[in-house]
Amino acid sequence: MVTCIYRTGSGIVVSRDGQYGFLQADWDTLFVGDGLKNTLEGFSLTGDDAPRIAVQESLLPPIGSQEVWASGVTYFSSRLARMEESKSAGGADFYARVYNADRPELFFKSVAERVRGHGQTVRVREDSEWDVPEPELTLAISDEGKIIGYTIGNDMSSRSIEGENPLYLPQAKSYEGATGLGPSLCVLDTPIEKSTEIKLSISRAGSVAFQGETSLKEMKRELEELVGYLYRELDFKKGCYLMTGTGIVPGTDFTLRSGDEISIQIENLGTLVQTVE
Q1: Closest to 5 measured CA to CA, from 191, 217, 186, 266
Q2: If DSSP states are collapsed to H, E and C, what string results for 65-110?
Q3: Same domain for 223 and 121
Q4: Comparing C-alpha atoms, which of 248, 250, 254, 274 is closest to residue 263?
Q5: Region at 256 (left for phi over 0; alpha for psi -120 to 50; beta for the rest)
Q6: Percent of the chain topping pLDDT 70
């Protein structure tokens, strides 16, 4: 069973089995201790139309005070893509070493106020020539380092800037409109399965410009391993989100354009749709 928690302009909404109800809680408390589990226990859905309408008309990104972090080169396909984009700068071996290292690549992605949600716009940098979305399973993690839920992430990236020099990664990854999350925070009865499929579709002027798919079984890293490294020397008093890397990378012949519609679907978590400014 999947329980979806939406943040809306009218309050927090819980959805389960087609029923909706308002949750009387502060978003950040869901990420502290057993706050999410305790809040959902005994919660009854009313079937009222108001929360359903709130989700349809005033949906916000599913984030409060949490930071968003990200993992890189966790799929073999992303290793190959990073090697290709950095070849001219002599950095191909750099990404091969990251893929094979014990320590994963982790980097800061965004503060909460820069996150864009379902139905909102994301951006490409004006000083970039090669830009792609990166569809990623994103973990919701409590202050204690426990995975409490999942959402869909869109890690917008400038491949041209990162390809110039690996040290330009912060500029390639972190800028206004570079982070998408949504449409909801999903709680599963059991940990997400490795067979879970991730699909990406990009529409341009009414036609499909790119599409691809992968599954979590293509990941080299374990989810708990990524969380363990992130929390090794960092405290997150209100929890955090962690993007877990991408296994779908458009080729060198593709770049995003203004007006493109990005659709990311993850099995059991829904679909995140955003338009490029």
Answers
A1: 186
A2: CCEEEEEECCEHHHHHHHHHHCHHHCCHHHHHHHHHCCCCEEEEEE
A3: yes
A4: 274
A5: beta
A6: 94
In single-letter form, the type of residue at position 90 comes to: G
Q: What is the pTM of this model?
A: 0.94
Distance, CA of 20 to CA of 32 (rounded, Å) = 24
Cα 247–Cα 249–Cα 253 angle in degrees, nearest 5: 160
pLDDT tens for 30-56 read 999 999 999 999 888 877 899 999 999
Block residue for tokens 């799929």: 75
Check whether residue 140 and residue 230 sit in a common domain.
Answer: yes
- 170-229 per-position pLDDT tens digit: 999 999 999 999 999 999 999 999 999 999 999 999 999 999 999 999 999 999 999 999
End of a domain among 30, 60, 90?
Answer: 60
Q: Hey, is 37 helix, strand or coil?
A: helix
Provide the residue range defining the domain that includes 55.
Answer: 2-60
User: 134, exposed or middle or buried, with CB in 10 Å at 0-12, 13-18, 19+?
Assistant: buried
